Recover the amino acids of this structure.
């Protein structure tokens, strides 16, 4: 077989990607240049990241006030926190990871039924970020599907593995309930009250599942699973089976920042603050920049549940957070606006949706 090491990104489209074929080397188009992502200059730390006992939200008034304060600080300084005692049974988490793994182990012809480069499609299977269109390819395979309301979308999901719809559906429903509780706490922490977004997210909100697979990489120091980016969503709730997630701590090293390795603890869920909460807070809370590193021996599976307002429902800065000292700092935008941005821009080159929303002085 001819060595494809120097081949272009278009050579490795879905169904033929290096990660799907388990190539024993990293093709050049997957190599992340040091000038683009200078890993040697960034400090990855295993220091603890904020961990919040979310059950305290249902405790006494004092307990709730305490956890709201913890959440406020985590959103303000990290844009990220882990949650424990979230109330989702471990079997639901384990089953969802198992059926996700089972899907990626299916024969190629089964997965190809869902292949699509259409970012507007409610269900699609592809690779990297935009399947051969990115200047740099990423060692990732993923299935994305809409998940709320579940009855509207579940019939479009994979029927194989046979329990995929049932097990993934239970996970989606449980995580969505949790997301509403967390969003109530976030709006309360901003002084907007618990119900500020509740009806908009509950009845018409979007839930998008990104079911990710990062196969073993023969040279994990040269490639990435995902480049540094932030999520468009209000929040993203993440479940993973292995480490690999790193977040960028903007406050470290006198403001120059550093990468922080997020440890994996069974049963603990990760919460990313997304671009739309940064807009909601008028910049008080920051959407977390994060990336995915790779493993040479093991496959990493992650389930990212992204929660936002409805497809065309625009997030804007609340009037309650605007005054002479704090003018509106962001333009309003919707999930559909993000999809339009994704079509026209290359996230692999560091382009961020949130940057297009900031109003310059």
């Amino acid at each position: 077989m001819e060595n494809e090491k120097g081949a272009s990104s278009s050579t490795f489209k879905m169904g033929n990607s290096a990660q799907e074929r388990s190539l024993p080397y990293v093709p050049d188009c997957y190599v992340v240049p040091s000038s683009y992502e200078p890993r040697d200059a960034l400090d990855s730390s295993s220091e603890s990241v904020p961990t919040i006992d979310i059950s305290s939200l249902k405790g006494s008034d004092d307990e709730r006030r305490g956890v709201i304060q913890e959440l406020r600080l985590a959103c303000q300084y990290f844009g990220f926190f882990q949650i424990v005692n979230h109330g989702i049974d471990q079997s639901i988490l384990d089953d969802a990871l198992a059926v996700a793994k089972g899907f990626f182990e299916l024969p190629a012809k089964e997965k190809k039924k869902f292949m699509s480069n259409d970012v507007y499609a409610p269900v699609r299977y592809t690779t990297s970020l935009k399947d051969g269109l990115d200047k740099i390819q990423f060692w990732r395979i993923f299935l994305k599907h809409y998940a709320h309301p579940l009855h509207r979308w579940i019939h479009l999901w994979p029927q194989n593995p046979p329990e995929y719809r049932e097990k993934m559906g239970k996970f989606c429903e449980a995580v969505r309930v949790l997301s509403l509780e967390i969003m109530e706490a976030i709006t309360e922490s901003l002084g907007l009250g618990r119900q500020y977004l509740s009806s908009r997210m509950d009845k018409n909100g979007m839930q998008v599942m990104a079911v990710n697979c990062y196969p073993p990489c023969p040279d994990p120091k040269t490639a990435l699973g995902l480049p540094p980016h932030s999520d468009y969503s209000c929040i993203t709730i993440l479940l993973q089976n292995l480490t690999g997630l790193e977040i960028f701590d903007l406050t470290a090293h006198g403001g120059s920042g550093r990468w922080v390795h997020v440890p994996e603890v069974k049963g603990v869920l990760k919460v990313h603050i997304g671009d739309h909460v940064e807009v909601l807070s008028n910049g008080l809370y920051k959407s977390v920049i994060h990336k995915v590193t790779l493993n040479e021996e093991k496959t990493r599976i992650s389930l990212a549940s992204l929660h936002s307002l409805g497809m065309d429902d625009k997030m804007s800065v609340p009037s309650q957070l605007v005054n002479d000292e704090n003018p509106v700092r962001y333009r309003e935008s919707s999930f559909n606006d993000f999809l339009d941005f994704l079509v026209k821009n290359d996230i692999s080159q560091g382009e961020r949706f949130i940057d297009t929303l900031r109003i310059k002085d």
